[in-house]
């Protein structure tokens, strides 16, 4: 009897752990040293997964963002994604712009984007698991599928998605299973 | 004597059932403390079910403008409230600057907002189910949804 009870307890705990996968959270942390402002946002991905498809406003409809043939700061997002997709692992696609350098690569199953301004004051690093990037681009050329990207994010491990810093502000966006940012 | 006992049991049962119904959707808690001298201090605890129920007695013509405003956002509100109800408790938003702290937390089926600024502290706790019923009640004032 003494040996059966611990075994049963372990089995029960294992069943509970398997039945209820841990909630995944998207965290946003903004620290502004000048204004002494600190923002922490913790969004359960299950909540985002329910809310995003319900929004039909502006360019966001049915969980997809209409980008059309739009260019972000002169960068054709879709063309960039296609270029990275066909490039070998580790090779950067570099986009030179007047004030900024954008470098994109596929590395270890992740899409990595580095943005640096020429003055060196601003830097943005984006790391998107490749599955998420592909999910984002899964709705054809003129849409970003945000809903599919969130579903893909739920399956990825803990990872930092975005870090951005300038002279007085630091922004970090990441995914993990903790419900707090600290 | 026996009859008195039966009446007593009936009254007690009615009180218990009424209490259970009234508290079934939880309680809305609003607390405001002004920090200035002789400032206002309010603490209200209201059964949340009173909000949607009392709206049933408000003539539609008063609720119709609100209904028109709410209806376009109803799918998002419904999704957000049901999503919030299903997700685990925890802090959702925290903002601090030199003067002010604001937090939005989901706890025990309620959304709790706390604000602490130089003038006052405000605490509002609203059960999500009651919020959903109240918004549905307002939205239905403009005709069937």
Briefly characterize the structure.
The complex is a heterodimer of chains A (182) and B (145). Chain A is an alpha+beta fold.
Polypeptide structure, described:
The complex is a heterodimer of chains A (182) and B (145). Chain A has 182 residues and is of the alpha+beta class. Helix content of chain A is 27%, strand content 38%. Chain A has 5 helices and 12 strands. In chain A, α2 runs antiparallel to α5 and α4 runs antiparallel to α5. The relative contact order of chain A is 0.18. In chain B, strands 2-1-6-5-4-3 form a 6-stranded antiparallel beta sheet. Chain B is globular and about 70 Å long. Chain B has one domain. Chain B is 43% helix and 30% strand. Chain B is built from 5 helices and 6 strands, in the order αββαααββββα. Chain B has 145 residues and is of the alpha+beta class. Chains A and B meet through β2 and α2 of A and α4 and β3 of B.
Q: How would you write the strand order of the largest sheet of chain A?
A: 2-1-12-11-9-8-7-6
Q: How do the helices and strands follow one another from N- to C-terminus of chain A?
A: HEEHEEEHEEEEHEHEE
Runs of chain A in which pLDDT lies below 50 for 5 or more consecutive residues are none
Helical segment count of chain B: 5
Shape of chain B: globular
> What's the total number of strands of chain A?
12
Number of structurally distinct domains of chain B: 1
Question: What brief labels describe this structure?
Answer:
heterodimer; A: 182 residues; alpha+beta; eight-stranded antiparallel β-sheet; four-stranded antiparallel β-sheet; 5 helices; 12 strands; 38% strand; globular; B: 145 residues; six-stranded antiparallel β-sheet; 6 strands
List the topology elements.
The complex is a heterodimer of chains A (182) and B (145).
Chain A lengths: L3 H16 L5 E8 L4 E8 H7 L4 E2 L2 E2 L2 E3 L10 H10 L5 E5 L3 E8 L2 E8 L5 E7 H7 L6 E3 H10 L3 E7 L3 E8 L6
Helix pairs in contact in A: 2-5, 4-5
Chain B lengths: L1 H21 L4 E8 L6 E7 L2 H6 L4 H11 L3 H13 L3 E7 L4 E7 L2 E7 L3 E8 H12 L6
Antiparallel strand pairs in B: 1-2, 1-6, 3-4, 4-5, 5-6
């Amino acid at each position: 009897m003494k040996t059966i009870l611990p075994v049963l307890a372990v089995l029960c705990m294992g069943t509970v752990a398997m039945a209820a996968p841990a909630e995944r959270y998207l965290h946003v942390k903004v620290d502004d040293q000048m204004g002494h402002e600190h923002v922490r946002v913790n969004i359960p991905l299950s909540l985002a997964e329910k809310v995003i498809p319900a929004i039909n406003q502006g360019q966001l409809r049915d969980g997809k963002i209409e980008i059309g043939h739009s260019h972000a700061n002169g960068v054709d997002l879709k063309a960039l994604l296609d270029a990275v997709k066909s490039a070998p692992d580790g090779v950067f696609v570099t986009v030179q712009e007047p004030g900024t350098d954008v470098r994109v690569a596929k590395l270890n199953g992740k899409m990595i984007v580095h943005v640096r301004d020429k003055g060196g004051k601003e830097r943005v690093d984006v790391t998107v698991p490749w599955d998420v990037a592909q999910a984002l681009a899964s709705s054809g050329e003129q849409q970003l599928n945000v809903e599919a990207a969130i579903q893909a994010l739920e399956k990825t491990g803990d990872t930092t998605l975005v870090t951005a810093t300038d002279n007085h502000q630091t922004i970090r966006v990441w995914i993990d299973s903790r419900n707090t940012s600290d | 004597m026996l009859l008195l006992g039966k009446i007593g049991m009936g009254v007690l049962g009615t009180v218990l059932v009424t209490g259970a119904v009234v508290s079934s959707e939880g309680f809305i808690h609003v607390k405001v403390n002004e920090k200035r001298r002789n400032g206002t201090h309010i603490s209200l605890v209201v059964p949340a079910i009173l909000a949607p129920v009392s709206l049933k007695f408000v003539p539609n013509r008063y609720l119709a403008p609100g209904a028109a405003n709410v209806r376009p956002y109803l799918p998002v509100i419904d999704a957000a409230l049901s999503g919030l109800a299903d997700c685990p408790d925890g802090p959702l938003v925290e903002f601090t600057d030199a003067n002010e702290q604001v937090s939005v937390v989901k706890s025990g089926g309620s959304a709790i907002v706390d604000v602490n600024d130089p003038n006052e502290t405000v605490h509002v706790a609203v059960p999500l189910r009651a919020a959903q019923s109240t918004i549905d009640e307002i939205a239905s004032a403009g005709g069937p949804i």
